[in-house]
Design goal:
The structure is a homodimer of 152-residue chains.
Chain A (H helix, E strand, L loop, with lengths): L10 H11 L6 H12 L4 E2 H11 L5 H13 L3 E4 L7 E4 L7 E5 L5 E4 L2 H13 L3 E12 L1 H4 L4
Parallel strand pairs in A: 4-6
Antiparallel strand pairs in A: 1-3, 2-3, 4-5
Helix pairs in contact in A: 2-3, 2-4, 3-4
The first copy, chain A, binds a DNA duplex (25 and 25 nucleotides) through helix 4.
Chain lengths: 152, 152
DNA sequence: TTCTATGCAAAATGTTTGCAATCAC
DNA sequence: GTGATTGCAAACATTTTGCATAGAA
């Protein structure tokens, strides 16, 4: 379950460090939630993570899962986004470079995208308006190749 | 209150046409809500529009305002967006070209932006992944000039 | 021990819906 | 008249919070 990325620390180590420096204790609940989060690839809702966690320990309350997700985001292990329907989606952030998302409006298939030209134009546009850019969100919506063809 | 834009129809005309072709009736409530919407510039929430409408007619229910906002979006007069906090913001869409938004994270000042290069790269990135792009949303977050300086 | 974390249930938020009464055409 | 529209209140979905209990260090 470790990320082997050169000399960088594992996600677990980063999380444990964050916990220690913030006087947060490592409870079995948090351990399970973080492990489950790290094992889950892709983009998923809090509710989806809840289901996965409760499969392993049905007595964990959803409040704890939401609270731990917040810690995961603060610690830099998770990133959260809302493509527009008011439901936050989470994904791994540690060891992952910034990217935006290309989402199929029919089946939900999501591709992580990154375009240097867009990124630098964003900086420039912000500067042109006197803004100091801190972050951005970009969602491209369309029909994926599969959905353009056959079904539905 | 009319938009004088060459030969194009006024927003009211477009709305009335939409109503007729969709078998929707022009009630005094809808009339007031649409008038208020058209008079309100910028980016505002449903709740903000509710307040403005209720100042004029306190007996209009919020459900009617939400329902009318939906009609406004469907008719192409309004555009709705959610910059990320789960609250939809509305703005005029009729007679306005597409644009994205640059938002001050401190004071909320919002600038409408448009960059040809970004737009065409978005198309290309989508194509490269076999997607047929239908729409996109982009939010740039940063500190506006005012907030970089003095007050906070 | 002492302060933090938990689970539960209730609250908060923004939006939508069911329904009987009302209104537009 | 007839079907669409309204206001109300309740329902909704997601996320957050208060609180008494339980647990970590």
């Amino acid at each position: 379950m470790n990320f082997i990325v050169g000399m960088s620390k594992s996600a677990e180590t980063v999380f444990i460090n964050y916990m220690e420096t913030h006087n947060l204790s490592m409870t079995p609940q948090r351990k399970l939630i973080v492990e489950t989060f790290l094992k889950t690839e892709g983009h998923f809702s809090a509710e989806h993570l809840c289901r996965l966690v409760k499969e392993k320990a049905s007595d964990i309350g959803q409040a704890t899962i939401y609270r731990t997700l917040k810690i995961l985001v603060e610690s830099g292990l998770a990133d959260s986004m809302d493509p527009g329907d008011g439901v936050a989606l989470y994904e791994h952030a540690y060891g992952h470079q910034h990217h935006d998302h290309l989402i199929c409006v029919n089946c939900g298939a999501t591709v992580e995208i990154f375009d240097e030209t867009i990124e630098s134009r964003q900086e420039k546009v912000a500067e042109d308006h006197g803004y100091k850019l801190t972050r951005h969100r970009m969602f491209l919506f369309g029909l994926c190749a599969d959905c353009q063809n056959g079904s539905h």
